[in-house]
Amino acid sequence: MEEHRFHLTANWTGGRNSVGEINAGNLKTQISIPPEMDGPGIGTNPDEMLLGAAATCYIITLAAMLERRNIPVASLTQHSEGIVEVDKGVITYKKIIHRPNVVLKKECSANQVEKVKVLAERAEKSCMISRAIQGNVEIGLEAIIGIEN
């Protein structure tokens, strides 16, 4: 069995509305509570980072699956949305919705278009971040698949 280890260092001085910093290799940024939660909104925050982890894992997984099956992709873009609920002071990350837009090249067959629909679903279930949060955060998928003009 192979293991990969990732490390992050954090620095936080002050109280709730202070600003900290994180450093995890290529990820170096300030952190604070978002303005939606009455924070200063400087840098990023845990809500954006969880959404970013889930979204990047999904799109990379989908891209790899499409490549392995030699499906000719013209473009692959995505919008993801995170929904956080605050109920009686308890903050809960409820749902993440991925909305990939896969545009296939003109030479794509009808069979390949159908395969992309299956792969879009499979990528969400295969992504390690989706698997890590499974049972805690609902993951939704609204894929758009088309063929270039």
Q: Could you give the distance between the termini? A: 46 Å
Shape call: elongated
User: Regions with pLDDT < 50 over 5+ consecutive residues?
Assistant: none
What is the H-and-E element order? Answer: EEEHEEHHEE
What is the count of β-strands?
Answer: 7
The portion of residues forming beta strands comes to 25-35%
**Mean pLDDT score, rounded?**
96
Instruction: Return Rg in Å.
Output: 18 Å
How many helices? The count is 3
Helical content (DSSP H or I, runs of 4+): 25-40%
Question: What characterizes the major β-sheet?
Answer: 4 strands, mixed
The helix-and-strand class reads alpha/beta
Folded structure, characterized:
With 149 residues, the chain is an alpha/beta fold. It has helices at residues 46-68, 110-126, 128-133, and strands at residues 9-12, 20-24, 27-31, 73-87, 90-104, 138-141, 144-147. Strands 4, 5, 6 and 7 form a four-stranded mixed β-sheet that branches. A three-stranded antiparallel β-sheet has the order 1-2-3, with no helix packed on it. The radius of gyration is 18 Å and the shape is elongated.
